[in-house]
Amino acid sequence: MAQRVLVVDVGGTHLKMLASGHQTPRKIASGPEMTAQLMCDWVKKAARGWRYEVAAIGYPGPVAHGRPVHEPYNMSKGWVGFDYAKGLGCPVKIINDAAMQAMGSYQGGRMLFLGLGTGLGSAMIVDGIVEPMELAHLPYKKGKTYEDYLGLRGLKRMGKKKWRRYVARIVEELQKALEADYVVLGGGNVKKIKTLPAKTRLGANGNAFVGGCRLWSEKQSTEPTRSPRRYEVKGRSQPIWQASQLLSMEKTNRRMNLESPA
């Protein structure tokens, strides 16, 4: 029997979660006061009535060997070294949040994923192998980072029109530099984009939850300290949910899409 997975997508603006067999995510506001303990307390309370055996967490920062290695930039401290299995009361796998959404968005080949939210998430999948990236804090221009241009700070500083131009420019630059076959844009601010760059499509809002389930569907160790940095995505059909549940989720994702692929 397939395991029932609780997927938690941690963001600087919202926390969202969904469990196997359900179609409507539950969410709460996040922010600079959010800690790992507060997250676990809310998840356990909000998930009452849901059945699950394991959990997957998308973390907004670097993850190594299944554990966060740096505190998040847009939330409170206390995430590094926290016992998430104890906090949630079940086995837990943790992966970078952009990588988790990338896993749910992948359709083969070389894919670059960029998450345009409070910050800038990034991950790449090459022939099924997932590699979380930290492009956000690399210098871009004028003493500012990629996140300073594509994240929420850049949107507020430049306004939507100029921000859109930088999104198009940077997406094209990264796509060429990393030799990606295509780019998937996710995150809460993609709804502000009017025209997609070439070889780019929008990821469905629910892809993070699909990615979290795929994380548990692969034959990886259930021990967080032994989980590898890289994960293999072998295809769109996964045994973690029943086929009808996956089909239902994909239909939900299509309804949640903001724009058709370019």
Detailed description of the structure:
α3 (97-105) crosses α7 (207-217) and α5 crosses α6 (160-177). Residues 220-229 and 235-262 have low confidence and may be disordered. Strands 14-13-8-9-10-15 form a 6-stranded mixed β-sheet, sandwiched between helices. A 5-stranded mixed β-sheet has the order 3-2-1-4-7, sandwiched between helices. The protein is globular and about 45 Å long. Helices cover 31% and strands 25% of the residues. β11 (139-141) and β12 form a beta hairpin. With 262 residues, the chain is α/β, with parallel strands linked by helices. The chain contains 8 helices and 15 strands. It has helices at residues 36-46, 84-88, 97-105, 146-150, 152-158, 160-177, 207-217, 243-256; strands spanning 5-10, 14-19, 26-29, 54-59, 63-64, 67-68, 92-96, 110-116, 120-126, 129-133, 139-141, 144-145, 182-186, 200-202, 231-232. The longest helix has 18 residues, at 160-177.
Write a concise keyword list for the protein shown above:
5-stranded mixed β-sheet; 25% strand; disordered C terminus
